[in-house]
């Protein structure tokens, strides 16, 4: 029974300590350059952030003067632009909620450069406030050019030549997709609940293939703007899918024959969750295709790593005498995690 305890401990470690199941928060930035003027706007989802900055940003967006002043100071400290090697002067800073009840806030900063320049050095360094796993996806627009950049604690600065052709930036989006799935505990627990019943290798392949096909489909549809589902619906639905599949593990003695169908149907919902990292960048169609491809490949690579790592254990678990007990215990803990996330996400919607 020692192995049963290890299974329980592993799942307990993933139980939610805050409203989001994603260790990685993703900010979406729009940077517009018009001559000597540069405007920076960052959109954040409050539910993805650590508790302290989430409260500060929510209070500032609600109009609290002290919090607003604190956020303005953070904005001027963590965002910097240099044009032609000379620092641009930060000006007015604003924070406001989206007004849609979706838990999003916009941080805006105006900067004035000493002279117009096609070469900019951008710094976006939010790790000290929003956590070491924060990432910012930025689109930089000039009169006739646009660029996309992924900022991270490892790469908080980027030099942009608005007069040169822009590379598609696939590697940055691939890395973002990889981090999104590896730090997305809700997606990982959903996969764990699906696979806990084990089965043979063919069964596992069918489940994973169905999940991959489904979330790839809705990721593309949502990112391209063909289907729009609000996050206040998607996020609770993802949590509910975890509870459903985990509880289903109590009802079947063997791997349910329809599990690949369940994987596909709920995979459609998870795809909308993946899309939230890309769809608001409003990229041009050609750039969006590359970003979507890179991000989706990153998600699939991360998913493949996880499945390859746990499949031998799951196959062994299915043959062990104590396997059914471990499956029920782990499924109960996963259902509990999903239920907590569901309540939290409904509360924050």
Q: What report would you give on this structure?
A:
With 349 residues, the chain is of the alpha+beta class. The chain folds into 2 domains: 2-21 and 184-348, no CATH class; 26-167, no CATH class. Helix content is 52%, strand content 19%. The protein contains 11 helices and 10 strands. The protein has helices at residues 2-12, 51-61, 65-78, 127-130, 170-182, 185-195, 201-223, 231-248, 259-275, 285-319, 323-348; strands at 26-34, 37-45, 79-83, 86-87, 89-97, 104-112, 119-124, 135-141, 146-151, 157-161. The strands form 2 sheets. Strands 5-6-2-1-8-9 form a 6-stranded mixed β-sheet, with helices on both faces. Helix 6 runs parallel beside helix 8 (231-248) and helix 8 (231-248) packs antiparallel against helix 11 (323-348).
Summarize the structure.
By secondary structure, the protein is α+β, with helices and mostly antiparallel strands. It is 52% helix and 19% strand. The strands form two sheets. The chain has a six-stranded mixed beta sheet, with helices on both faces.
